Structures are given as C-alpha cells and as structure tokens.
Amino acid sequence: MGVGLELHEKSEVNAFGPKFGLFDRVSTLFELVEKLPDEMSDAEVEGVLAVIPKETSKGLSAMLIPRLRDVSLIFLKTIGKWLRDAKNAPLEGKKSVLVPFCFPPEIVQAFDSAFPVTSEVLSTIGVIALEGQGERYFNMALGLGLPDHICSANAVEIGSMLGSDDFQPQAIISAAVGSCDINSKTHEMVSNYYGIPQFILEKPVDDTERGHPLYKKNFRRLVGQLEEFFDEELTEEKLRRVVEKANKASELMLELWDIHSAVPHPVPNLFALFTYGTRFAMWGTDEAITTMQAMVDTSKKRLKNGDYPAEKEVARCILSYTSYYFDLANLFNWMEEQGYSYIGDGLDLLWPTVIDTTDRDTMLDGLAMQAWNMPMTRQVGGHSMSMCWLEDLIHVAKMWSADCAIYSGHHSCKQTWSVSNIVRAELMNRINVPMLNLQGDSWLKRTTPISVIQKEIDEFIKNVVLPKRVGKKKVRKRA
Ligand code: SF4
Predict the structure, then answer these.
(1) Span from the CA of 374 to the centroid of ligand 1 (angstroms)
(2) Whose CA is nearest to atom 2 of ligand 1?
(3) Which residues contact residue 228 at a Cβ distance below 8 angstroms, ignoring those fewer than 6 apart?
(4) Strands, E, within 209-364: which ranges?
C-alpha cells in the first residue's frame, strides 16, 4: 500500500476489477462529472448516460431528471471538487484525515496542511454511482475477517481501503466514541492495521451543564493533538476563514428548514440527501454555500409557483434515521411522484447554529457544540438514546407538520434497532404520528429490494396514515 491519496499502479487489473478501489473509481468518474456543462438538455443527459456503466447511469439519472437537474449538477460538482481536492492533497503536501460523518469537517479544512475525507460520504457515493455498488467492497471487509454486523455506512469504504490498492489516510479522527461502538471499533481497527494515529473526540453521555464544558475540553484537546500532528498552529484567522463560510451555509440550511413547513412541500425529496452530503463533506467552503443557496432558491421558486411533482401532496413523511441509498430514483423520486413528501431524515437533524466569530475561543466553543449536535452523536449518544431521538423527532414532526415517520431499519444499526419500538410507541402516544418500522440495509441492496420497500411504504400510507387523517377530521367534526 502506498501513502496518501496517490493513485497506484494497476496495470495488471481491469479498471472495474475488484482490486480497483472505491476512491479511485469515484474520483475518476467525478473528473467526468466536473466537465459536464452547468446546463444540459435532455438529449445531452441521455448521451452521457448512454456511455457510462448501467448502475452508474441509474444513480446519476435519478439526479438529472429535469426538475432537479440544475441543482443536482451543482451538488455533483461540489462533490467532484471535494474528491479532486482529496486526490491532490498529498501532492500539495497535505495530510489526509479520515473523519466520520458525525464530525464537522470544517475544523480540518481550517488547517493549511490537512484535508478531511469522510468515510460515510465515500461509501454513499460508491453505492449511488459505481457499477457493482457497495456490495463488492463490503464483501472485501468480510473477506478480511471483519464481522458481518459491521455498519455498511463505513464498511463499504473501509473494505475498499483494506482490500484494494486504494488510498490510505495519514490519521483518523473518531467522533463516534460514546455514540456508536461498531463505528468506533471499525476505525480503531484501521488505525491499528496501518499504524496511523487515531484522535478521539469523546462525548460524555451527560447533556447537563456538566457535560458541555467537559465536551468542549475534549474538543480543545483534540485540536491541540491535531496541531501537534500537523505541526501547524490553528490560528484565529484560519478558524475565522472557515467558520464564516460555515455560518453562511448554516444560515441557508436554517432557511431551508423554514421552507420545509410549507404545504405542499416545496423542497424536492432528494435535497434531504444533498443537504447532509454537503454538510458532511464540504462545510466551511465556498462550494457548500453555492450548493445550499441553489437548494434554497429552487425551493423558494417552487413555493412561489405552487409547484409540486404529483397531482397533490398525499402525506408528509420524515425518515427517522438513515435512508436507502442504493436506488435514489425508486425511493426519493418515486415517493415524490406518489405525493409522499420526504421532508428529511435523521441525518438532517444536525441543528445548525451560527457560530460567534469574536475570537478563537468563541469559535472553538461553537465548533464543539456543532460536533455535539451532529446526527448520531446528538441522538444515539445522548443520555437516553430513545428520549434524545424522540425529542428531536417530535420537534421536527410538529414544526414540519409530518403525518408519519418511517424507520429504515438499517440492518447494521443495532443501536437504533434497540429503541425503535419505544420511539414508535411514544411518537404515537405523544403526537399521534405513526411510525413504520422497515427492515433493510441503507447501503446494501441485497438485504431488502427496493420494490419491497416501496410496497411497504405505499401500504403504510394508504392503510394507516390516510385513514388516521380522515379519522382525525371526523373527531374534529364531532367535537
Ligand atoms: S448507522 Fe448505526 S451502526 Fe451505523 S454508524 Fe450510525 S449508529 Fe453506528
């Protein structure tokens, strides 16, 4: 294995053979995506989709449907820029740091000599855009002896890293300690395997006045360790450079949160994924601002014109934790065409705030609290997993007038499975919102096919959500 994100000699293998890593393949694909024009006609899109592999074409065509095309191209180019920067990082003397999705990447962006690469974002891009999707890399992880209950969210990328000649980071930041055992152990194993340092940000399961200062202290210790490792001081100016941009993107996300309340839902379903894809990879950059701005503008336009892709909005749904990423067209777009608005999922519940930029201390405190509020850390790593998760769901369900919640039942997530029935019962008891518990894997298509997922969502909405709504009206009438 080489060091850094360099591409390695692969002349002995087929370009789509199993030894060719996920990072190499997605970064090569996105070199093409970055070259696409900002505006494309249907014929041009058709032409591009015809010359790329079938599953790649399927993933991209879901994003390039006419009603989403402009914003999707901006989002795809943002991801393309991120991949290009990651690939060039070692050439520019930067150290690549593997971070989890629950860590604010802007803190790494603030260093001149480092670049953040988010495991779960890489896995998701691979599942959406590569021929063979995530299965081949997940299989590599199992082939290397990792257990079959690891989380595919990161195991797809980790499998590629360990099982092929793909990139290797120079350090790992683990922010899942205290919220997800399997995420923490998987990254710890990679750190031991490669002999690279792992920097840990531990969250106390204490949401009281005592917990926040301790977490801020842990956060500052992490920053100090990074400064030592990169041999670079994280000055106030460097922090301000990224925090000001992160603040702008957070303001736009808050604007989008307001727009979510409108009926019918003016925000295209796929924007739920674009929002956190941008947040987990590019926060603190100009590209993140451009992408968020494009989503806000399109949603406002739809709101103004009353545009909605289906004849009418039938139900407003919140996915309570992760989604399904292996068939975007047949989940997000399909739901939208049925009139089932997908307002957001658990990964959108990251409570953006605008950070006080007065000085280094206020910015570090603000970033620490952003890290605290990242999805999974905030809910699954809370003092009570079910209650923290439930409180957030109740808040957004009321704010966005949701009719129902859907739990994807992500196969690997023993954590959330352990309390999903409590959450379901309490959502119903407290705010009369039913929750569907599905079974499936968010990143692997072989666990439950999308046709089964569609059928279950459809039956749930028709047989549970809609009759309940009619019942509510009847009760109101009688009263
Ligand atoms: S989805 Fe579940 S298992 Fe996977 S990283 Fe999140 S909490 Fe951990």
Answers:
(1) 13
(2) 413
(3) none
(4) 315-319, 340-345
Asked if residue 379 has its Cβ within 6 Å of ligand 1, the reply is no
Atom 3 (ligand 1): residue with closest C-alpha? 413
CA of 237 to the centre of ligand 1 (A): 35
In terms of Cβ atoms closer than 10 Å to its own Cβ (0-12, 13-18, 19+), residue 459 is exposed
Nearest CA to ligand 1 atom 1: 413
Per-residue pLDDT of the chain (479 residues; tens, 9 = 90+): 333 333 333 333 334 455 689 999 999 999 999 999 999 999 999 999 999 999 999 999 999 999 999 999 999 999 999 999 999 999 999 999 999 999 999 999 999 999 999 999 999 999 999 999 999 999 999 998 899 889 999 999 999 999 888 888 999 999 998 889 999 999 999 999 999 999 999 998 888 778 999 999 999 999 999 999 999 999 999 999 999 999 999 999 999 999 999 999 999 999 999 999 999 999 999 999 999 999 999 999 999 999 999 999 999 999 999 999 999 999 999 999 999 999 999 999 999 999 999 999 999 999 999 999 999 999 999 989 999 999 999 999 999 999 999 999 999 898 899 999 999 999 999 999 999 999 999 999 999 999 999 999 999 999 999 998 776 554 444 33
Residue 378 near ligand 1, beta carbon < 6 Å: no
* Alpha carbon 332 to chain centroid, angstroms: 15
* Domain boundaries along the sequence of the chain: 22-478
pTM (predicted TM-score)? 0.93
Q: Is 212 left (phi over 0), alpha (psi -120 to 50) or beta?
A: alpha
Q: Give the pair of three-digit tokens for residue 246.
A: 């992160």
Report whether residue 152 contacts ligand 1, using a CB cutoff of 6 Å.
no
Show the tokens assigned to 454: 């569609």
